[in-house]
């Protein structure tokens, strides 16, 4: 990652941290990081359309929450294999009346992130694949003491890329790349970046990552999509040191999420067919 990109990432992370705590939203970091994750997934629908930054900045707190809900609904439809891990990011939106403090915090974070240059990172695919923005935001939001107590350590991007170049030289397509203490995926990002620089497609490999933190695992799920890791990504949320076969459970949970989404789609198709049949048989 270039120094210029690092400065942009740091600027966004600091703005998010200040906005969240300034709004007095509380300690639910999943909601805060989830705002950035959702905005990172929301691309520009029409290149010639309105400026997305202006659109977001014009939204009220409730409108921001509606936008977030729409992004998570679409992500669940498109990537059920990843979205099932994103509960810490979007579950609060399912409340009949969302917490007003969380609404205010989410709105403040969205506007602060956009003002600080978030979209310069997320709408540029090349830039987005060089950074772990969610990891930086999550790290910024945590105190040093809490990170140390939980054993969290995020490898600098340059170190991660150097390590990837040393270890991935002759790795054949179809092989697995795994990090059992993955965080939001910095080492996997570096591996994917090195593969692309070598003319290889990350989608040709199988990716495994596990973290004990549900928020970090959710961040990895979003990052896996942004970084283009492909369709063979298995994400576990467990203590990988205590649960040696975490990947077995992770594969089972992933498959369950995919099958649940297929079932929902089939139910929706049946309902639509029944409505069409009833509408067609109604008297004119």
Q: What proportion strand? A: 5-15%
List the total number of helices.
15
Radius of gyration: 20 Å
Give the proportion of residues in helices. 55-70%
Q: Describe the global form.
A: globular
Mean pLDDT: 91
Biggest sheet, in brief?
3 strands, parallel
How many E-type strands?
A: 3
| Uncertain spans | none
* Helix-strand pattern: HHHHHHHHHHHHEHEHEH
How far apart the termini lie comes to 65 Å
Oligomer: single chain
Q: State the strand order across the main sheet.
A: 1-2-3
Structural class: mainly alpha
Describe the protein.
There is one protein chain. The protein is mainly α. It contains 15 helices and 3 strands. The chain has helices at residues 3-22, 29-41, 52-57, 61-78, 80-83, 87-90, 100-115, 118-122, 125-128, 133-141, 144-149, 157-167, 186-197, 214-226, 246-281; strands at 176-179, 206-211, 233-237. The protein is globular, with a radius of gyration of 20 Å. The protein starts with a helix and ends with a helix.
What is the element layout, followed by pairings?
Elements lengths: L2 H20 L6 H13 L10 H6 L3 H18 L1 H4 L3 H4 L9 H16 L2 H5 L2 H4 L4 H9 L2 H6 L7 H11 L8 E4 L6 H12 L8 E6 L2 H13 L6 E5 L8 H36 L3
Parallel strand pairs: 1-2, 2-3
Helix pairs in contact: 1-7, 1-10, 2-4, 2-7, 2-10, 2-14, 4-7, 12-13
